[in-house]
Amino acid sequence: MNFARTAMTLAFGLNCLVAPFTVVAQEAKPDPKAETKSPQLNDLPADKSVPQTMELGGKTVKYTATVGTLPVKNGEGKSVGEVVFTSYTIDAPNRPVTFAFNGGPGAASVYLNLGAIGPKRVDFGAEGQSPSDPATLKDNPGTWLDFTDLVFIDPIGTGFSRSLVAMDETKKLFYGPDQDIAYLSKIVYDWLVKNQRLQSRKYIVGESYGGYRGPRLTSYLQSSIGVGVNGLVLVSPALNPSTGSEDLSPIPWMITLPSIVAANYERQGKLTPENMAAVIDYTRGEYMVDLGKGFSDPAATPRVVKKVTELTGLDATFVKQSGGRLETQAFLREEFRETGKLGSRYDPNVTAYDPFPYNPTQETQDPILLSIIAPTTTAMVDFVTRTVGWKTDARYNALSFEVNRNWDRSGGRGAFDGAESATDLRTAVATDPKLRVLIAHGWADLSCPFMGSVLTVSQIPIMGDPTRVAVHEYPGGHMYYSRLASSLALRKDVMDLVEKH
């Protein structure tokens, strides 16, 4: 999940805890050192494993589900954090292992686990679903478990993972793009050593900001930890967020237009790779040129408005007023204005009622973002504590507002400060001529639009096999895997990538 774009400012008040009122002497002063003390926390349980089964393709798959912890230690060997992982393994020789990360910053790995690639799934993120629907786990036909073991890692502050030091030290150690890569890479290494899997083929999958993490983790593992990665799968990645000023550069508008068109085509039953290829050609051709001309060519903007109106099906006056440059949140309100609903930036065809329809700007959070916390939290906590039997009274954070609020943005590029992910992708591919990369997007995702990856990958030189870095698109939005056909298509594409090794 990606909190980094406009309108993803989190409703922090929802996460507040109210302490009991205590009468104290008037002269009592707060302890100025209170916030620097290490938190007093109950011990997390020992690792716990249980045998499980699922039905896949008419066959029974037997596997072991494990919930456990790995310590994060500082330079003095002191534990400063505990990372909780959930793994699914099959007892068979020569099994690959895949490490999975979600995004945020502040998202646990539950979305990839119980939504996309784990052996069980719970419904969330689709039109018509409700946070109060039963959070029932069922076998996942899109799982990758039959061809790779799976390890889902929750960064510090998400899931049950936690820091053991005060907040000021926590931010220095964990809550920033560079330190995030350093300690999570070490966690991958520690899991491999602990489970005697250093000789296994290794894959990384990251979603959204986890997709930004993916190339950086791969490069860091190669160069700093000494672990080679065979394959990298980026699910709806925020790969290259630096796109220039919307006032001067055509690139921001080029990135979002095709996904807006895809949402319209899907409603019309016209969403096909062939139709979208024509949209991509227009976007990187005539649309880019006319935007670049701006007011220097009086005919340029009218051409843009006419074509964008035709492609999107939006009201011509709305498109004219925007100059054919469709700001995402304005579009999501306009798309379903007559019904009093909002579209989601994660999938414009997933809607919710707008509680403030007459306000000049959107006042509520994203329809999907608000609706997925309950089912994923309920399903994951029930699985961990009841099915696996890893008993804890700790709070589970599917989406941590605290992590996102405290993330280091001092470099001026928000959550994406630090080394460029796209730069590390180039370096990792050049370093390992056998590394294969699949970048997988939903056509209609406006949180991390596919066109951003298309433009980025087109600037990476071909190094050997031109198919080593590939961008694939599927019907749906950010969580396109919530649609069975797209989930199965992703599974097939990843299976092909793994089989190439």
Describe the structure in your own words:
Helix content is 36%, strand content 16%. The radius of gyration is 23 Å and the shape is globular. The protein folds into two domains: 332 residues, 3-Layer(aba) Sandwich (Rossmann fold), CATH 3.40.50.1820; 117 residues, no CATH class. The longest helix is centred in the middle third of the chain and has 21 residues. A hairpin with a 5-residue loop joins strand 2 and strand 3. With 501 residues, the protein is of the alpha/beta class. It has 15 helices and 14 strands. Strands 1, 2, 3, 4, 7, 8, 9, 10, 13 and 14 form a ten-stranded mixed β-sheet that branches.
Return the average pLDDT rounded to an integer: 88
CATH superfamily of the largest domain: Alpha/Beta hydrolase fold, catalytic domain
| Approximate strand percentage | 15-25%
CATH class categorisation of the largest domain: Alpha Beta
Please bin the fraction of helical residues: 25-40%
Any idea what the radius of gyration is?
23 Å
Helix count equals 15
The CATH architecture of the largest domain comes to: 3-Layer(aba) Sandwich
Low-pLDDT parts are 1-37
| Helix-strand makeup class | alpha/beta
At the fold tier of CATH, the topology name of the largest domain is: Rossmann fold
What profile does the largest beta sheet have? 10 strands, mixed
What order do the helices and strands come in, and which of them pair?
Blueprint: E1 48-56, E2 59-73, E3 79-89, E4 97-101, H1 110-117, E5 120-121, E6 138-139, E7 149-153, E8 162-163, H2 167-173, H3 177-194, E9 202-207, H4 209-225, E10 231-235, H5 251-268, H6 273-293, H7 300-312, H8 316-321, H9 328-335, E11 341-343, E12 351-353, H10 367-371, H11 373-388, H12 401-406, H13 421-431, E13 436-442, H14 450-457, E14 469-474, H15 484-499
Parallel strand pairs: 4-7, 4-9, 9-10, 10-13, 13-14
Antiparallel strand pairs: 1-2, 2-3, 3-7, 3-8, 5-6, 11-12
Helix pairs in contact: 3-4, 4-13, 5-6, 5-14, 6-7
